[in-house]
Each structure stands twice: as C-alpha cells, then as structure tokens.
C-alpha cells in the first residue's frame, strides 16, 4: 500500500473545513446520536483503502464538528491553531517520533531544548528552568505539584520515591478560593487530598492577609501554595509579589497555575499582571490555549530542574543531577508525540513581537466586548476586564441563561454559560489568533439580538 494514499484526501478535507469556518455556524449542527447514526456501529471484516476511510470519516463527522478554530468561538478558554503550528503538527504525525529518549530522537530533543529556553525567556521566568511538554494544563499542574510534593517532603526528611506517602509528615496545600478545579484534581492524583481554600476578593484574587494568616497557622509543616495567573471568569491575577514572599517566608513551595494567563508575561503591555510570579518555584501553562498550538500541549515549568527530574524521572533520585538527562525525565509519560515541534513553529513564525501582539490582540478584543456589552440595555459586565475574559449578566439568571441559549441557537458566535459568585453568567473568552474586529462586531450584534434588542 502506498504510504501517502490517504494524505491528499486528508489535505482536501482539512482545507475544505478551514475554508468553511467564516461562513458556517459556530455550534455543531448534528448531535452525538446523529453522528453515531451516520457512522454506523459495525466493524466490517475486510479492508477499506485509507483514502476511502478518510472520506467516510470526514463525511460522517462534518455536521458534528464545532467550529472551534473560528474567530467567533469564544467558549471556555480554548485557543485556535496558528497556521505554522497546524502545518508542523501534520509533520509531527508523519515523522512519528517517540520523543522520550535523546539517542532515539535527536531532532525533537534539540527542538525541545531550544523551545524550552524560548518559552522561559518569553514568559520572564528564571533562566535554566525546566519545561516538561505534557498534554495540557491539568497534567502541567500535576507534574509541577508532584515536584513540589516531593521537594517539601524531602526538605522535611522524607523521601516519597522511597517511602511513599503513608506515614509521612503530610503536606498542607493552600489554594485561592477560586483556583481552577484541575488543581484539586491534580492533588487527588498525587494523594494529597483536598486543599485548604484561602479567601479571595471580588475578582477571585487570593487575599494576601488571609494567606499570611493561613501560613502562620501551619506550624512549619511542609506546605505548597498554589497561586493563579488568569481566573477563568474574571481573567484576574493573584497579587504575586506579596503572596509569593509570604509563602517563601514560611518555607512553602509556590506553584502558579497560569494555563492561559501566564502568557501575559510575553507582552510588554500586560507584563505587570504577572509581576512577582517569576519568584515562584513552578508554573503550569498551556500552549494549546493562548499560544494557539493544536491540542494536546501543556507546559510544566519548574525552576529546580533536579526537583522535576527526581519526581518524574525513571530513577526518582534527586542526586542524578549532573548528566544531561533524558526528555522523559520531565514528564509523566515515557512514549509521547513531538509536542515541541508545533510550539517551536508558532514561536518561530510570530517572533517575540508577534507573541506580544497575539496576547494584546486578545485583550483588546476582550475590552471591545466589554464596552459593547455594557452598552446593551439590561446587560452588565461583572469583572474588571484586565485580560482575555469578559463575564457578563443580562439581568436575572433566567434572562442570562436565555441569552446563552439564544446565542447557541443562532450560531453566529459561541459564548459560554457558567456560574460565578452565585449568579448565572455569560462568558466571553478571546484566545484565537484569527479573531478580527469584524468578528467581535458580528458577535456583539448577535448578543444584542439574543438579548432581545
Ligand atoms: C484550562 C485550564 C486548566 C486546565 O487545562 P487543560 O489544558 O484543559 O488540562 C487549568 N487551569 C486553568 C486556569 C485553566 O484555564
């Protein structure tokens, strides 16, 4: 069989899909049941040529696809895919490199090394920090918090790799009341149980005084403090200078969940939002959100390379530090795809200024949304729009939910319904490189119609 027999068809469907984005409704037109009916459930006995398989799948799935790469998709916090990253992602599958070992894939190891240094530099983090290329923000939090857990216990004289957690001094984990749920999930995976929430202010930022009080109550027990760069509802950033200093005074490891917000550090205009975050010990971010590479790509960044390797490496030993190390020592997986290739591609294509412009563009569009929504009668913007998130209500909960439903039914743009501070909200999240001023205007017009004006 010809190795490339399906690729031309895949290319054609991909180009057709991308060309359809401007004109098609953003929500899917078929639900799961309809796609199941189109697919059929029986696996036949004989072979089907790859090109026909590609055609069949594309035809069955097309109506069930959401136009997430559209410039009018403002749901959840989901980025688009930059063209350089998309093109290189095709190479990733074609090259099919298993990227765990240096000797096995020198190309990816080299690209990962360059990309690691670029990312750390762009985000304003300490030079020499290690970056593990994982599947997403959840696993980036997990990976960083594994390094944190082992390190604070090591400092208390307890080797987790050797002895496990049973019988250990235990770890206190302090989190802001509005941390992302995936912090709790990561802590569960790590056997650390539920964290202790610390009060947050009206924008969801951790209260430094409450954090200081909670730290004081710890009596020197091993402690991790999780801060946040980018609250999913408000986009707010924790007050890092004060919070990190207080945590470090108490001997805690400080982790920052910056799944989408850490990239504020790449923009001279927004850098002030993350001031002080660089003093932390670890940072989780997504490349598949603000940086616009395809799923699945998160970045687990740890200042102490040895601590990351001790937690994730095959040997679990803090002392194997001097050698160059293997790529698999920085991530939970052994086998994984070449995730650094698309990240390298988007950074190379945009350059420093382009990344700053990308971030600033999202923020400017968010500000335009806030202004446009505030001008709709009965609508209010509930957050200080400092970054990419706009959280709004259109009167009481029923009315707001009605607007969310009307937006989905109409299909011009996708906005998300959520709850924040006990209220139904409609949230707009801007994180796609292709969003234009016209997309924002068309989406605002749709919001006006959906709200009955
Ligand atoms: C999206 C998000 C996560 C989870 O990231 P995934 O890539 O979806 O696993 C964690 N924290 C914050 C603040 C997020 O926005």
TrEMBL record:
Q: Which organism is it from?
A: Nocardioides cavernae
Give one Pfam family, short name only: Pyridoxal_deC
Entry cofactors = pyridoxal 5'-phosphate
Chain ranges of the Rhodanese domain: 339-374
Q: What is this protein called?
A: Glutamate/tyrosine decarboxylase-like PLP-dependent enzyme
Q: Which PANTHER family match?
A: GROUP II PYRIDOXAL-5-PHOSPHATE DECARBOXYLASE, MIP05841P
GO MF terms listed in the record are:
aromatic-L-amino-acid decarboxylase activity; pyridoxal phosphate binding
Task: Give UniProt keywords alphabetically.
Answer: Decarboxylase, Lyase, Pyridoxal phosphate
User: Signal peptide position in this chain?
Assistant: none
Tell me yes or no: is Transferase among this UniProt entry's keywords: no
Task: Give the record's family classification.
Answer: Belongs to the group II decarboxylase family.
Which InterPro entries has this protein been placed in?
Aromatic_deC (IPR010977), PyrdxlP-dep_de-COase (IPR002129), PyrdxlP-dep_Trfase (IPR015424), PyrdxlP-dep_Trfase_major (IPR015421), PyrdxlP-dep_Trfase_small (IPR015422), Rhodanese-like_dom (IPR001763)
At what positions is N6-(pyridoxal phosphate)lysine found?
289
Q: A Gene Ontology biological process annotation?
A: carboxylic acid metabolic process
